[in-house]
Amino acid sequence: MALGASHRLHDGVAAVETMTRFALAVLALASGVYTYLGVRSLLDGSATAVFFAAIIYSGSVSVAIYAFWSYMARFFPHVTGPGARSAMLGVMALGCAMIIAMSSWLNAAALAGSAALEQHLAETVEGYTADLDQAHQNALAAQSLLPDIQRASERFSQLADAERQSGALTGTTGAGSVVQLLSQMSAQMKDLENGIVASREQVANLFEQGQKRLETMRTLVSSPGAIAPRADQFSSEVVALTGVITSLNQTSIAPSIRRAADDLSLGFIAPVADGREVDLANRQGQVMETIRASVAAQSKVLSQAADEILTRPPVAERRFVPLSSAEAVLRYAGDFIPAWAGAISIDLLPAVLVFILATVHGAIRRQEARMPFAERITAAELLEALEVQRALSARGIDIEEALRTAESSGRASPDTETEEEGKITSLDLNKLPRKGPGA
């Protein structure tokens, strides 16, 4: 039974030998084709130079892969010693690493290079979208001060009207120094309000331009067709969008509000009381001091609010780095595991065939080791042994006597055993038998 199983395994190994060579050739050719597609995207120069360079490289890769796995399939299954088997496994691991380095990543670039580049562009769009939103928020932060400035302007204006019409502050109607000061403060607040409103319109226009650039970039990412021209146009849009974001960073009116708030307090110049009566002049002076204190308080509030806006982190400058398809596949390898698995499997699938052959040959050796010698010998070997026996008999050599002598010599000395075995196994069938003394 064991002999039949061993023979069937031998027959199976012989039957799949041609298929093994064919499979290695096909896999090496497939790897070479995808390597050509991957390496072509990395080379620069004329079309002819790129074509021949890619062909030579991919052809070298195909030959190297076929030769490596052919050697492994031929020798690895027959190496049985632990040390030799470990050395062969080390060589196989080194060869697999070199194959991945020179071929598999280019295969992955050919399989998923365009998708990886599109992902790179998509993530770039997300980053610039966040930058545009942050710059827009920073630019609009000063708009939150507009209601306070409007209320302050209206309050000064109302107090001026009340003083002019009913003398609400000094008790004397008319347009005097107090009315003049209140009108001046209202005008300053109105100018600051107009500056904020104008800034809001400019910020809105810049933000609309940025949104249009982002829309164009998103369209380029999702559009069909070759990725290279889309990536070039995408780079142009990135440059334009960067300019919009820089303009938004410089459009913030918070620094102007900070300076205007300081001018309200530091540059406060109260007019001289113009009351003809001493009592009216004193009342005007008291009211103007009150106005000075109110202006100082308003200036402090605006300065603190402007400082909070100015402490916001500015938008960091983002640099867009164009990538090749091979570089994009490496950077986003975790997102394209199926493509990497397919690319590596093309190159390393022959290792499975090598291990199958090693397992089969190991099973054959174990089966044959358990069989007696009479069951292991083949008909051809038996015929050859009979020919040797006839040749020895024709020369007058007694085989049984020679075997007994060899066994006794072997028990006497190992060196003698080696020598006798050498004598027996070195018999030349073409030599004539040695004659004894009485011949």
List key phrases describing it.
439 residues; mainly alpha; 15 helices; 80% helix; rod-shaped
Describe this structure in words.
The chain crosses the membrane at residues 12-37, 49-69, 89-106, 339-364. It comes from Rhizobium helianthi. Residues 404-439 are annotated as: Disordered. Residues 182-209 form a coiled coil. The chain has 439 residues and is mainly α. The chain has three domains: 2-78 and 336-365, no CATH class; 117-323, no CATH class; 378-425. The protein is built from 15 helices and no strands. Helix 3 (82-140) packs across helix 6 (227-251) and helix 14 runs antiparallel to helix 15 (414-425). The protein starts with a helix and ends in a 14-residue tail after the last helix. Mean pLDDT is 78; it is low at 413-439.
Total DSSP helices? 15
Overall pLDDT level? 78
Distance between the termini: 52 Å
Q: What structural category arises from helix and sheet content?
A: mainly alpha
Shape: rod-shaped
Provide a quick synopsis of the model.
By secondary structure, the protein is an all-alpha fold.
Question: What's the layout of helices and strands?
Answer:
Blueprint: H1 2-40, H2 47-75, H3 82-140, H4 146-166, H5 177-222, H6 227-251, H7 254-266, H8 278-310, H9 325-331, H10 337-348, H11 350-370, H12 373-376, H13 379-394, H14 399-412, H15 414-425
Helix pairs in contact: 1-2, 1-3, 1-11, 2-3, 2-11, 3-5, 3-6, 3-9, 3-10, 4-5, 5-6, 5-8, 7-8, 14-15
